[in-house]
Design brief:
The chain contains 15 helices and eight strands. By secondary structure, the chain is an alpha/beta fold. Helix 9 runs antiparallel to helix 10 and helix 9 packs antiparallel against helix 11. It folds into three domains: 155 residues, no CATH class; 77 residues; 189 residues, no CATH class.
Length: 449
């Protein structure tokens, strides 16, 4: 009888402990759920008040309170069109800010501008009557509202992640990024830890059994658990080469459906841009010929899509009688001409590659194509190098906007890590982010070679 009572007491004690641990986990689940619900509510309120300030109030101010009953067709078209453009711009910003290294408020003006320009173009092409003054007022209000909201949001919102202190989680995450508030877990429990967004662990490491149960409980209670390499990629925009085997090669294959769409966008973009930039190309060619002897165009064999060689077209930016090592040696390369420094800074030397885009050799966005000699050299040292040719090379790419145009040899490994991240996350949104950052580089000249 004594043994039975003791056994029952031990069972009740362990049950109480389990219930206590479960209560702790449930409390964090409630915190996470409340936080998640607040985020959803914040997005809805953002859209609601944004439409109210950007679309409804300007319309009522201009046309009066009886606007709903006395408005003309042009006024209603402007009302509906600006609502659609503003909602589209919010969608763009919210998707872009999920990508590495993005600050949402920095993309308010570009995305709002693109959305409203598309509205005006569509109305012009379809001959839809619209109040352009109302569109202009709504555009100005959208820029002001979006900039203020996302600036405050970026200052107040900080990711909180708890780290399981085993394996490579510490070295891959905490030491690599300071934009996240990290919580080091000393025991398999969230006691004393405030609201967190996720738990980070080296899921391929040798975790003790109690830590495995802890991660399972987090998953059951809908607290996200991320592998350390996945978080590293999310925060840095790079896929480490020494962890490439950890990725299934199927996950690194680009989406075939988007490849078709992207090819169509490339052709359309090249056809629209060539007539617009032709005067700039003519002036650039004249400046090159007057600055130094030699042809204006430079052709070089490069490694292309599916490892097929092709000839890339560029404006010549170097002297023809200066010998080099077969690759750019940085900003102080003595082979670069005076005009060459200018056209490199603003990427004008890349304009002839619009022809490569039309031919199908290149895309607007993708890994930069390397010369045949450099490609052979890299392949000897980096077993995965040829895998970057699973997508078309691009005029601009993720490595260029993140790393900048450094000398080819110096940042080769880092450049490949960015290229593999682009291939793994091959999507319209990542391409759009690269386009916006490339435009910023062209306008400011910062980050160019």
């Amino acid at each position: 009888t004594w043994r039975r009572r003791a056994g029952n007491g031990a069972h009740e004690s362990s049950k109480g402990t389990a219930m206590k641990e479960d209560t702790i986990t449930m409390e964090h689940q409630r915190r996470y759920s409340r936080h998640h619900e607040r985020l959803i509510a914040s997005k809805r309120l953002q859209t609601f008040f944004g439409l109210l300030l950007v679309v409804v109030l300007p319309a009522m101010y201009r046309w009066g309170g009886d606007f709903w009953f006395t408005s003309t067709t042009a006024q209603w078209n402007a009302f509906i069109g600006t609502a659609a453009a503003f909602t589209l711009s919010l969608t763009f910003i919210n998707r872009l800010c999920q990508l590495p290294g993005t600050k949402s408020f920095a993309y308010v003006i570009p995305t709002v501008s693109v959305s409203y320009v598309v509205l005006i173009i569509l109305c012009s092409l379809l001959e839809i009557a619209v109040s352009r003054l109302q569109v202009g007022i709504s555009f100005a209000m959208a820029v002001v509202f979006g900039s203020a909201f996302y600036y405050v949001d970026s200052r107040l919102t900080t990711k909180r992640m708890a780290v399981v202190p085993f394996g490579k989680a510490l070295s891959l995450c905490v030491k690599k990024n300071t934009s996240v508030r990290w919580y080091m877990l000393n025991s398999p429990s969230l006691v004393g830890v405030k609201r967190i967004d996720a738990v980070v662990a080296d899921l391929r490491g040798d975790l003790p059994e109690e830590w495995q149960r802890f991660l399972a409980d987090c998953t059951i209670h809908r607290i996200p658990v991320y592998h350390a390499t996945q978080v590293h990629e999310m925060l840095t925009g790079r896929v480490l080469l020494d962890h490439l085997y950890a990725n299934e090669f199927g996950s690194l294959s680009p989406h075939e459906g988007y490849e078709v769409v992207k090819r169509g966008l490339d052709i359309l973009g090249a056809l629209l841009l060539l007539p617009l930039v032709s005067p700039i190309m003519v002036l650039t060619a004249i400046a090159i010929r007057r600055d130094s002897p030699g042809p204006a165009l430079f052709c070089q064999p490069r490694m292309g899509f599916h490892c097929r060689p092709f000839s890339v077209y560029k404006f010549r930016s170097m002297y023809t009688d200066h010998k080099g090592q077969g690759f750019t040696e940085g900003d102080n390369d003595p082979r670069i001409t005076r005009v060459g420094r200018v056209i490199r800074k603003y990427r004008l030397d890349e304009l002839p590659q619009l022809v490569n885009v039309l031919k199908g050799d290149m895309s607007f966005i993708g890994p930069r194509p390397e010369s045949m000699s450099l490609a052979s050299w890299y392949e000897k040292d980096v077993p995965f190098f040829h895998y970057r040719h699973v997508v078309r090379p691009g005029i601009s790419g993720w490595a260029q906007v993140e790393q900048g145009y450094a000398a080819e040899v110096d940042g080769m490994i880092e450049k490949l890590e960015y290229d593999f991240y682009y291939i793994k996350n091959f999507s319209f949104w990542l391409d759009l982010l690269i386009v916006l950052r490339t435009i910023r580089t062209v306008v400011t000249g910062n980050g160019s070679r």
